[in-house]
Amino acid sequence: SLVVLFGATAGAYGAKLGSDERELILLVWQVVDLHSKKVGTLHKSLVKADNLDLSDQCREVSGLTPEGLGKAEPLDRVLQQFSQLVSSDLKVLGRSSYTLCSDGQLLIRQVLHPETSKKNFLLSDCFYSFYDLRKEFHTCYPSSAAVKDQTIKTMAEYLGLGTDEAEEDFGVWQVKTMVAIIFSMLSEGCNHVFTEPETVKHKYETGPCSKSETVDSETVIRARGLPWQSSDQDIARFFKGLNIAKGGVALCLNSQGRRNGEALVRFVDSEQRDLALERHKHHMGSRYIEVYKATGEEFLKIAGGTSNEVAQFLSKENQVIIRMRGLPFTATQEDVLGFLGPECPVTGGKEGLLFVKYPDGRPTGDAFVLFSCEEYAQNALKKHKEILGKRYIELFRSTAAEVQQVLNRYMSTPLIPTLPTPIIPVIPPPYTIATGSIRDCVRLRGLPYTAGIDDILEFMGDATGDIKPHGVHMVLNQQGRPSGDAFIQMKSADKAFMVAQKCHKKMMKDRYVEVFQCSGEEMNFVLMGGTLNRSGLSPPPCKLPCLSPPAYAAFQTAAVIPAEAAALYQPQALLPSTRTPQASAAAPPAVTYYPAQAAQLYMNYTAYYPSPPVSPTTVGYIAAPPGAVAAAATATHTPILPQPGALVRMQGLPYNTGMKEILSFFQGYQYAPDDYNGLIQLSDQARSVLQAPKEWVCL
């Protein structure tokens, strides 16, 4: 038997049914016995919606009013009546089982399943299997219009059924016409058999995805605006009624490994994907979710994996996955199992744990855990932010795709972070950072983040001539970016006092900058990570004495750049040329923070002490005058490519290690002067520089 079903919502009608997230307001149905070709009683039931505001199209097409709907029963009661009346009609016809038959898929997939899911009540099993009359009609009559262009009216016209829509109530005409179409398909000329119903998955199935799989781009969408705590089951519930492929929900992570509110979802076919796109800006709780097309390559990039360990871990199907974050690096499997306790047993014991590690085997503090049922997973989530060792542990719902993504991210992390293209190192001229208590420095606070050395010099005006060579120091934040602070070493305490008085709260670009007089000792404390405010001086986290770059008294000879390097690193490739201050009567003849020698590349940016925990970054450079590059190009040298093994990396240093300890550690392993010839081909002039004492080698 078939139960022919028709419905309408308070919003859009026809091809857009369910796309506006409006509630069901009408159900009409009738039982059809396919063997005896008899029918049961036709039933029409109004449904009371939570929002009785009907769209203009709904009012026009259906003729229903809010007043009439206000007297109706809610959806759960109507569905109970539906089951009871269908069972009663089947008994009259001598039948016991039935399958639904609807005009297309929208009523079942886009209206009934999403609405009942949001209202938290279950549909009976009969709503998980149905026949699409349009598809059955096209199968029976291949010369008819395409399935997507079919309607009840076009099917009736194709068969020449003389029915007048205006003679019947809305919904009644549709059901009667559908029954007439079915009887025509059952006639001797067609003898159509209903054999392959459409199915709706009861539950989303988790599973792994391999990068070697082929994913059709016509089956993938991107959902954006998800709550950060949403899981794959939450996303599957948002798309309730549509069939998601096994392991087809991939939550996207940001660069810090945290969810970014997006997910890629893979459906079983393009038809399901097209229906999913109609849920654009539908709501998950109080948030609306944007739905866009995506590609199979994007899905594989997020969800695909190649690790056998992960594949084995995820081979246990229908498991609930929980992600643990913040584990102590020394935590063992026994520690994690003990933390979870007997109330939430892990599937397979130790085999249900997967620790995330770096390529060199170091733990990341993340782990994934499998649970066999929702109850155990809920018990585990109750331990969110409980203590293991000396750390609190975060627990979240996770997905198979997230396991792959996290493992892919960490396993692809290089042991040594990728550095930008190196700039040719040069030997800086002699200079020192003051460390005394004389207040011959000034601190600039509130600089624009885009401000550079030239902006500071322009801000200083005539006082630029009183800055010591290499006396401008930018303070960087933890990401190595300008923090808005800078320190300037002046030639005397009087000069520093005058600058602080003259430039305090002077505008730089669109911000005013505070200028305070301070000492070299205070400057170094801040550069090392301490704080300087009205309450006094707070020492930096590292309690070592400030390690200033050493004085280069032995290096009086300029460094020469090989010709090949000069050709590769043109002045424009290093850093933009500095702006030349406008000449004035009071201005000095030259910018005095540059060294006197001009035929070199010089540092204009000394950032030896960014804020902890970032290591000191490499210094920047400015381009030499064109004449210097031209002079260097006249010599011929071989390319300056360091040989393999020229650098070593030290890992696991104590946090209080200083330069002296590192030099002592390598005592006896320094290069002999002649050893530099095999590393870099240099001119005699540069070699004389490199053969000086070696303290400068540690950067």
TrEMBL record:
GO terms for cellular component: nucleus. Belongs to the ESRP family. InterPro entries: ESRP (IPR050666), Nucleotide-bd_a/b_plait_sf (IPR012677), RBD_domain_sf (IPR035979), RNaseH-like_sf (IPR012337), RNaseH_sf (IPR036397), RRM_dom (IPR000504). Gene3D superfamilies: 3.30.70.330, Ribonuclease H-like superfamily/Ribonuclease H. This is Epithelial splicing regulatory protein 2. It is found in: Nucleus. GO terms for molecular function: RNA binding. Keywords: mRNA processing, mRNA splicing, Nucleus, Repeat, RNA-binding. One of its GO terms (biological process) is RNA splicing. Residues 320-400 form the RRM domain.
